[in-house]
Amino acid sequence: MEKTGPKAKAIAYWMATALFCLQMSFTAYAQMRLPQVAAAFTHLGFPAYFRVELSCAKLLGVVLLLAPVPARLKEWAYAGFAIDLASALIAHLAVGDGPEAWGWAAGTGVLWGLSYFFWRLQATGASA
Asked: How far is CA 74 from CA 40, 60, 98, 123, in A?
């Protein structure tokens, strides 16, 4: 079995993380600026101020994933994103939304998983 080199792991990590961070940054922007996204939050039963808090938290998490910060801070950012994505899925399913509504959270969850997997792979030096 061929081992994956550190360069390949780094490339895979940065590709997944860049896509994930772009998606999370876009959703933070959309939550703050797009009326249809504000309406979706109301549809889910969340108060308007929650959009602002969530957007700020997402942007902080993106900065932590992209910046050279201690591993513990990255772990907290990944945990926060996992909670956010799982909560989005649960909220959409609870109100009976279909895949057109919760599909974005599910797809972003896949990017989250890839980013986290390759980050841990790099951190431990394990082979893929």
From this structure: 29, 11, 32, 11
Q: Minimal CA–CA distance to 79: which of 52, 49, 57? A: 57
- Which amino acid, residue 102? W
Dist CA 85 CA 78 (whole Å): 11
Tell me how many degrees the CA angle 106-112-117 measures, rounded to the nearest 5.
130
Write the DSSP string, 27-70: HHHHHHH-HHHHHHHHHHT--HHHHHHHHHHHHHHHHHHHS---
Confidence of residue 125 (pLDDT cuts 50, 70, 90): low
Q: What is the pLDDT of residues 44-102, one digit of tens each?
A: 999 999 999 999 999 999 999 999 999 999 999 999 999 999 999 999 999 999 999 99
Task: Note whether 119 and 20 are within 8 A (CB).
Answer: no
- Residues 6 or more apart from 28 whose CB is under 8 A from it? 54, 55, 56, 58, 59, 62
Q: Does residue 107 surpass a pLDDT of 70? A: yes
